Amino acid sequence: MNLRLRSYARHWPTLAPVLAAAVLALTWGRSLPTGMVVLVSCCLAAAVLSAVHHAEVIAHRVGEPFGSLVLAIAVTIIEVALIVTLMADGGDKSSTLARDTVFAAVMITCNGIVGLSLLVGALKRRVAVFNAEGTGAAFGTVATLAGLSLVLPTFTTSTPGSRFSPAQLVFAAVAALILYGLFVATQTVRHRDYFLPVTAEGDVIDADDHADPPSARAALTSLGLLAVALIAVVGLAKGVSPTIESGVAAAGLPASVVGVVIALLVLLPETIAAVRAARRDRVQTSLNLGLGSAMASIGLTIPAVAVASVWLEGPLVLGLGATHMVLLALTVVVGTLTVIPGRATPLQGGVHLSLLAAYIVLAVSP
């Protein structure tokens, strides 16, 4: 029995995505009783942990910054599919879903993942060190994408409400794709060294030195299992969302809280991977994950909903309200001051986390 348990423990990263996918297939589209919600939640947690494991295997095989791109893009593609699916089912009440989800992703990644990574890295080595050139380029792109996609619609006059006109929406979608494509080319080809981890002295670390990279077969297997795990994470999160919605309604909280909870669940694999990288003194890898996820969320979601709006009924509201614009402005200012030195103390991490806490508090109590 002990040998069997040890065998299961050794192979849990392979078993967890398969089990989670099986539970997803059995529960999809069904109303779940309390006992099933507990089971689904356990499978969701296992799928998250296995996704992190397989993402780290792939990252070790392909190296940085390609490894962090794999997890960021994979999560975002599935997140976009979930948004479009919910918008197709929701009608007019889902008009703000894309905006709320994208903004939640920006706040969670730029303040939650970045702040937690800086805090963990600085507490371990007194000062968290990263490459200011690469991080600044990533943060500047995120700020530009957020401004073009989430702030401008509030002030345009062609269409009533915080919406783009069709021509403006096409421009925002094309601009998002071009900026994201330029950033990926910069990160992986022309200036790859800007996005590699650095030592305390500022020397670039071009390879992990703690273990030999896995074989190509193992990396491909992990890539497939990562896709299965991420699909299970998003699908199971959608499955438990009615329970979350009913709990939020029973507590008298705003409906936007549901979007925050779902965003937290979907971004949990990247958060765990970023914290693990920070604990290994790879703060740059953590920042690549956080800012890359924010950028992919905007750069892929806005074009996707622009295309989906052709057949979706109801308005597409993208413009932020005044409170959220203040939080975004604070995030941009604080993030800029954090990035410029290329070094951060626990204070900077705490400041970013306080902004995330303010966002969550205002989501619960507008």
From TrEMBL:
<feature type="transmembrane region" description="Helical">
    <location>
        <begin position="135"/>
        <end position="155"/>
    </location>
</feature>
<feature type="transmembrane region" description="Helical">
    <location>
        <begin position="102"/>
        <end position="123"/>
    </location>
</feature>
<keyword id="KW-1133">Transmembrane helix</keyword>
<dbReference type="InterPro" id="IPR004837">
    <property type="entry name" value="NaCa_Exmemb"/>
</dbReference>
<feature type="domain" description="Sodium/calcium exchanger membrane region">
    <location>
        <begin position="222"/>
        <end position="363"/>
    </location>
</feature>
<feature type="transmembrane region" description="Helical">
    <location>
        <begin position="318"/>
        <end position="340"/>
    </location>
</feature>
<feature type="domain" description="Sodium/calcium exchanger membrane region">
    <location>
        <begin position="34"/>
        <end position="188"/>
    </location>
</feature>
<feature type="transmembrane region" description="Helical">
    <location>
        <begin position="347"/>
        <end position="365"/>
    </location>
</feature>
<dbReference type="Pfam" id="PF01699">
    <property type="entry name" value="Na_Ca_ex"/>
</dbReference>
<feature type="transmembrane region" description="Helical">
    <location>
        <begin position="66"/>
        <end position="87"/>
    </location>
</feature>
<feature type="transmembrane region" description="Helical">
    <location>
        <begin position="35"/>
        <end position="54"/>
    </location>
</feature>
<feature type="transmembrane region" description="Helical">
    <location>
        <begin position="249"/>
        <end position="268"/>
    </location>
</feature>
<feature type="transmembrane region" description="Helical">
    <location>
        <begin position="167"/>
        <end position="185"/>
    </location>
</feature>
<protein>
    <submittedName>
        <fullName>Ionic transporter y4hA</fullName>
    </submittedName>
</protein>
<dbReference type="GO" id="GO:0015385">
    <property type="term" value="F:sodium:proton antiporter activity"/>
</dbReference>
<feature type="transmembrane region" description="Helical">
    <location>
        <begin position="12"/>
        <end position="29"/>
    </location>
</feature>
<feature type="transmembrane region" description="Helical">
    <location>
        <begin position="289"/>
        <end position="312"/>
    </location>
</feature>
<dbReference type="GO" id="GO:0015386">
    <property type="term" value="F:potassium:proton antiporter activity"/>
</dbReference>
<feature type="transmembrane region" description="Helical">
    <location>
        <begin position="218"/>
        <end position="237"/>
    </location>
</feature>
<keyword id="KW-0472">Membrane</keyword>
<dbReference type="GO" id="GO:0005886">
    <property type="term" value="C:plasma membrane"/>
</dbReference>
<dbReference type="InterPro" id="IPR052946">
    <property type="entry name" value="Alkaline_pH_Ca-Antiporter"/>
</dbReference>
<keyword id="KW-0812">Transmembrane</keyword>
